[in-house]
Design brief:
This protein is α/β, with parallel strands linked by helices. Helices cover 18% and strands 42% of the residues. Strand 7 and strand 8 form a beta hairpin.
Length: 125
Amino acid sequence: MSLDRILVLLGGVAAITWVNWYFFMARRTIASASLDPSGTQQIEIAVAGGYSPALVRVKAGRPVRLIFDRRETNPCSEELVIPDFGIRRFLPPNQKTAVEFTPTTSGSHEFTCGMGMLRGKVVAE
């Protein structure tokens, strides 16, 4: 195998490794939702090339309000999907959108963009 083929192969492996790390293993911020006066657990999540925080802790059995603050116009982040609660919502650019649900049991509930590239998680305890 020639040197140029080896360099191309190594470059491809490096690119694949970086993409997998960025989308699946990059460090995610963790936050706990706070209670508003009505007893609803609430937290704001910034949407800009990903979700921040990407991991939200809540109490099971209490209503949850996630406020998605979409700070970009990237078409990938225009749709939010939370399959466990049947939620599919359009997120207008540069606006905040509230999404409400109640996790009845403990467990992990993933949320993603419409394409599944951006990922976050709600952990009910």
